[in-house]
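Batch manifest line 294
LIGAND: FE2/S2 (inorganic) cluster
JOB: complex structure
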Amino acid sequence: MIDHDAVPPAEDITRFYQPELARVIGKWQMTEMMVLLRLQPASGERLDHAPGQFLQISLPGYGEAPISFCSSPTQTDSFELCVQSVGNLSEALHDLRPGDFVGVRGPYGHGFPVEDMRGRDVLIVAGGIGIAPLRSLINYMADRRRDFGRVIIVYGARNPSERLFVEDVEAWDARDDFETWFTVDEPDETWTGMTGVVTVPLREVEIDPARTTAAVVGPPVMYRYVAMELLNKQMAEDDILFSLERRFKCGMGKCGHCQLNDLYVCQDGPVFRYTQLIGRTEAIEVWAPDEQKG
Ligand SMILES: Cc1cc2nc3c(=O)[nH]c(=O)nc-3n(C[C@H](O)[C@H](O)[C@H](O)COP(=O)(O)OP(=O)(O)OC[C@H]3O[C@@H](n4cnc5c(N)ncnc54)[C@H](O)[C@@H]3O)c2cc1C
Ligand code: FES
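JOB STATUS: finished
ARTIFACT:
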């Protein structure tokens, strides 16, 4: 819920929208549509984000957009963003070269509640580009491994060539203390893994529902079916976390562009507990409890 008391006096408000400069120090083309940017604040100060938070990135003449952090906060000298080329700004971000500058403001929003997740098993469910914010959480847990119980990763991509962070994925797969399940919707001749949407491996994963927190990020259509699977596994609604995407403008609870009933997705989210979303039919295609019996 928005905190109106937090609105600063009018003369101060512009500083909240003022981006700071960050320099591109690395760039990798991950797939045809996706680029990974490594950035460093020009001030030399850390942004200190939490997994699941986002920042507003801008280029003069092209605009500003929210992008999730995809690096772990344990990576302290820089941060990474994974950008899909979809429009004016993101295409321009794809043209950046090391040494170029962008504007950034943030971090913003509520990320994954990592403190509440300590000691618990964590089930990651990623679909498509949803692996980007979840990579931040997975690599955080890798660096703080003793703080968490089982780490189970279920990642689905449309086809093998659209899989992101392939090196990370191989590193997670090679660890004895991570359990990994990878699937693609449309296999090709190179693919030897599972085939089908993300709920196919998810159905096979065995969990202790009382000690598991699920972190789910993917296309909105996925949420309904993933929620059904997790509730069928007797998970509590409060232990299921979804990250939502909406059109953002200010990114910090001032303009109302992202409003979902009484929630400001940018400020109250983007990570929400499923309990917070039930009854807000606009949020995700919310699953109706009667369907569980089918
Ligand atoms: C919390 C959050 C985190 C995000 N994280 C990432 C990320 O890690 N990587 C990434 O590539 N993108 C991410 N996005 C989406 C990104 O902000 C948009 O794609 C952005 O608008 C691109 O700007 P543009 O000027 O290139 O394209 P635009 O011209 O703004 O949009 C191009 C097309 O995409 C559609 N679109 C734009 N934003 C959204 C949206 N939020 N939901 C649905 N459709 C949209 C537009 O309707 C249009 O058809 C995130 C969005 C949110 C809200
Ligand atoms: S984007 Fe402005 S209130 Fe959320």
